[in-house]
Each structure stands twice: as C-alpha cells, then as structure tokens.
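re: ur question from yesterday

yeah so i grabbed the chain u mentioned. its 237 aa long if i counted rite. heres the sequnce exactly as i have it in my notes:
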Amino acid sequence: MEKIIDLLNRISELYAIPQWVVNSGAIAICIILIAFPFVARYLMRPKYFRFHELILFKVLWRWKYKKGDVIGLWCYCPKCQSMLMVDDENCRLEETLQHKITFFICPTCGGHELSRVVGGDRRYVLSLVRRDIWKHIREGTYNEVASATKEALALYVELEEAKEQDAAEGSVSVDETTASPLEEELPLAEKSVEESLHVNTPEASETTIPAHEEPQKEESDTTQASIQVEEMKKDGI
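ran it thru and got these structure tokens back, copy pasting raw so excuse formatting
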C-alpha cells in the first residue's frame, strides 16, 4: 500500500498534476478493473434472460436463470402479484390422469380458485410451464410473449382499480337509497295525519249542532203549539 502511495506521489510531482486528480484516477481505475468482469458477464448473457414472466393457465409465472437453466419457478396471482397456494392432494388418491387435478388458490384475493390443471400434480404443472418457456426461447417469440404479459398485467391492474371504484360508488349509492325512503316517509306521514284531520273535522261539524241554532228551533216549536191551541178553540173543543 505504501509503494502505491509513493508511486502516486512521484507521478504527481513528475507530471505536475494535482495530487487529488492522481488519487481520483487511481480509484476510478481500480473500480473499473473490479467491475469489468461483472459488466462483461451481464453484457454477454443471452438476450432471453430478460424473459422471466409468463401468463399460463390463467396464472402468472416467474423464474430466474442460472447456468442456462430455469430456477425459482413459481406461480403468482396476476391481480395482486402475491404467491399462490397449490392444492394437489387429490392427485395422490386418484389413479387416472383425467381425475388428477391441481388447483391454484390466491389467499390474498379471498381464497378463491384462480385456475386448475388436469393431468397431474404440481411437478407435472411445473414441467409443462418449463416446456412452454423453452419453446418460446427456441422459436424466438419470447419478446412478444414478454410484452403481451406486461400488457395483460397492466390490464389486470386497471380492472381491479375499476372494480374498487365501482364498489365505492355502489356503497355511496346504497347509503343514499337507504336514506331517501326515510326522507320520503316523513312527508307522507305528515300528509296522512293532515288528511285524517281534514276528514274527521267535517263529520264532527255535521253531527254537532251549533249553539245559535238551538233557540230558533225551540221558538218554532212553541209557535206551532200556540197555533194548534187557537185552532182547537175555534173548533169549539
């Protein structure tokens, strides 16, 4: 280390270069020499290494590459991007391939079934996915598949956002509809009370006799009685 420092000092004195410039150049050269193998390996890797996502059997599959082999292959939910649970218990009980079914379940989305594959257990499904991956790599269609996968994932995200907005609007509309009948019932109740009052008051007025009409009726009765007495006197009764 001391020899390197002495060498840098001699270079700075010999060529009249500031010491910090010499030190910065030496550090940059060391970084380049250390990072060069990694950068070269990254640049020389196959182009299909960018192909690491695929939607198959209505499920999102992700994986990595190591020494030309697919590793870390597993399934994810295309809606919430969470890892899926795989249920293949019936494959141990059934003997015929038509009855062996592997289920894919997302616990984050409510534990609903996303997809199923008939014919074998999870190892069978993983072998099918690997075969499809290498098929696209051999045919050179992995770029189209990768772009289609990104578009499909973006579409899933848009659909989920639209569902959340619809659910929020639906809850607001439900609150409004539950409140509106109450608001409508209050005027109806008041109206019915008013109608009952208007219906009862005329009947009461018809049955009851005003106080100022009773003396007139008594006077008419007395006059009729006096007229009858006079007529009886005239007849000689």
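noticed a couple things. The longest strand covers residues 59-66. also The CA atoms of residues 77 and 162 lie 18 Å apart.
anyway ttyl
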